[in-house]
Automatic annotation (TrEMBL):
All residue ranges annotated as the Mitochondrial splicing suppressor 51 zinc-finger domain in the record: 138-196
Mitochondrial splicing suppressor 51-like C-terminal domain boundaries: 300-477
Species in which this protein is naturally found: Chaetomium thermophilum (strain DSM 1495 / CBS 144.50 / IMI 039719)
Biased composition range(s): Low complexity: 43-53
Compositionally skewed regions (Polar residues) per UniProt: 30-39
Region of interest called Disordered, as start-end residue ranges on this chain: 30-53
One GO cellular component term: mitochondrion
One BP annotation, GO: mitochondrial respiratory chain complex IV assembly
Protein name: Uncharacterized protein
Length: 506
């Protein structure tokens, strides 16, 4: 069992910016001499493999336009964008709910999910309250620079959403109108957090299997997607939020690469002409014609090389349940896919040991090749630019390769220097680069940074905008609870500019 100090440290770490948390977790390992065992390894076996690891909380199923406007307004006015990196990339693992047994009685029933954080029946949530109170500041204007009071921590919990936000009841009451803009969303976050700890059976984490040949997947929205993919157990808004929190990672990739993608070159379809060329090249291999191949000797056919999807700066996404990632294989059943997670934090939260670096495996790559026929996941805990320089994955081919960066923080002051070295190599490959952001501000900051670094050297493939397959669950930043965001909220794509031969006529 982990000691209370371990639990507190882990709970605190899981809320920090992952960049800071890496060094802290190293310190904590050094201090107690061993790495902490994730709780899910201490638990008895769960009933199916698809329930071995879970993502955390969600929020409103469908956030109405009005609510998202409030959020946007709240975010731009109240949040300090420099903290927006301190989000919940490993929340999925921090909450570590009891995944449930269909016959067990839940600890919390569905009509008993709201509890103020600091008096929650769930210890992990009380610890979260403790963390928020010590790290966030009262947003009342009196504490602003030049105001009448010095900054104070958030001690007072709003009775309606149960999140510690203000230093006192007086400041909460005085700022109530502004708080109303986000109170509903915060309450939903509160209930969704408690839901994950409720001990109920999470049927929404049963993933759909093989897609029938004759049934087309409809990518117009989460609803049509889940329906046409035959996800059967997602029948409430809360289940939808919990499920999309995980599925947003594979389906964001699938929805852009698939031939039935919701993004197109019609007006408002966001795909650019260069984007159509680029993604068509990949689709040529992702959707090959049927060739009559089969398992018997006479049906053997030459298989083209796998399409490689490089997920760079990988963190929590590398430890998502494998059944979630296999959803990509179900979307492209006729081609082989190799998913490659690369990033110094890619092995965080993973139970495998990093193999020693040898001449055959120079980067200590962890390979999982028995997940699904034709689908393989490899993980390398190193910087992409280090690997690129050695030519390990050469040659790159825009017909077979693409890059995905989930919330990379390209323009974030804490991480942009890491990306500065990577970007030129990515552009050099001419393969598409898909990028997501937590919020509009987060995404725009990345776009501005790419513009500064590589002005004129790249083509936009997908115009920035809200991601059809974003997480429907909202999260709050424990360092600043008014900084609210959703996983993969926005998405855009670009690639290194191609200079085509042109005729020089007189
Ligand atoms: Zn105050
Ligand atoms: Zn409230």
């Amino acid at each position: 069992m982990a000691s209370p100090a371990d639990l507190t440290a882990r709970s605190a770490l899981s809320r920090l910016c992952t960049r800071c948390s890496v060094s802290l977790s190293r310190q904590s390992r050094a201090a107690n001499g061993f790495a902490q065992t994730p709780k899910h390894q201490q638990r008895p076996l769960s009933t199916t493999s698809s329930r071995t690891r879970r993502l955390a909380p969600l929020s409103p199923l469908v956030v109405t336009n009005a609510a998202s406007k409030h959020l946007a307004a709240g975010a731009s006015r109240l949040s300090i964008s420099t903290t927006s990196r301190a989000l919940h990339e490993h929340d999925p693992f921090k909450f570590d709910p009891y995944y449930g047994n269909p016959y067990a009685t839940p600890i919390l029933s569905q009509d008993n999910l709201f509890h103020p954080f600091s008096s929650s029946p769930i210890r992990a949530i009380r610890e979260r309250a403790w963390f928020i109170k010590r790290h966030s500041s009262c947003p009342h204007p009196d504490h602003a620079p030049g105001g009448s009071q010095l900054p104070k921590h958030s001690e007072f919990e709003c009775p309606d959403c149960g999140v510690p936000l203000y230093c006192s009841k007086e400041h909460w009451a005085d700022d109530y109108e502004r708080h109303l803009e986000v109170c509903d969303i915060l309450r939903q976050i509160n209930e969704d957090d408690h839901d994950l700890h409720s001990g109920r059976y999470f049927a929404e984490f049963e993933y759909a299997g093989v897609q029938l040949d004759e049934a087309l997947v409809n990518f117009s929205s989460w609803d049509t997607f889940l329906y046409t993919r035959e996800f059967k157990a997602i029948n409430s808004e809360r289940s939808m939020r919990q499920a999309t929190r995980i599925l947003t990672y594979p389906i964001t990739i699938g929805s852009i690469l698939h031939e039935l993608s919701p993004y197109n070159i019609k007006a408002g379809g966001r795909l650019t002409v260069e984007g159509l060329k680029s993604f068509s090249a990949l689709r040529y291999n992702l959707h090959p014609p049927k060739n009559g191949g089969g398992p018997s000797i006479k049906d053997l056919r030459v298989r083209p090389p796998p399409v490689r999807i490089f997920v760079l700066g990988a963190r929590a996404e590398s430890s998502l349940p494998r059944d979630a990632w296999i959803q990509i294989a179900h979307l492209f059943p006729l081609c082989d896919i190799h998913l490659i997670f690369i990033g110094p934090e890619a092995m965080l939260n993973r139970k495998e040991k990093i193999p020693p670096r040898t001449p055959e495996n120079p980067f200590g790559m962890v390979v999982e090749d028995q997940l699904w026929p034709g689908f393989k996941i490899s993980t390398i805990a190193d910087y992409y630019h280090t690997i690129h320089k050695t030519g390990y994955f050469y040659p790159y081919d825009p017909y077979f390769d693409c890059f995905v960066l989930f919330h990379p923080g390209l323009g974030h002051p804490a991480s942009s220097h890491h990306w500065a070295e990577t970007l030129p190599y990515l552009l050099e490959t001419k393969a598409p680069i898909i990028v997501t952001g937590y919020t509009e501000e987060d995404m725009q900051r990345d776009i501005n940074w790419v513009n500064e670094q590589a002005s004129g050297e790249f083509d936009l493939l997908l115009e920035p905008g809200e991601n059809t397959f974003r997480s429907l669950r909202w999260d709050l930043n424990d360092m600043d609870p008014l900084d609210i965001s959703a996983g993969n909220w926005g998405v855009w794509a670009f690639r290194g500019k191609r200079y085509e031969a042109t005729r020089k006529d007189a």
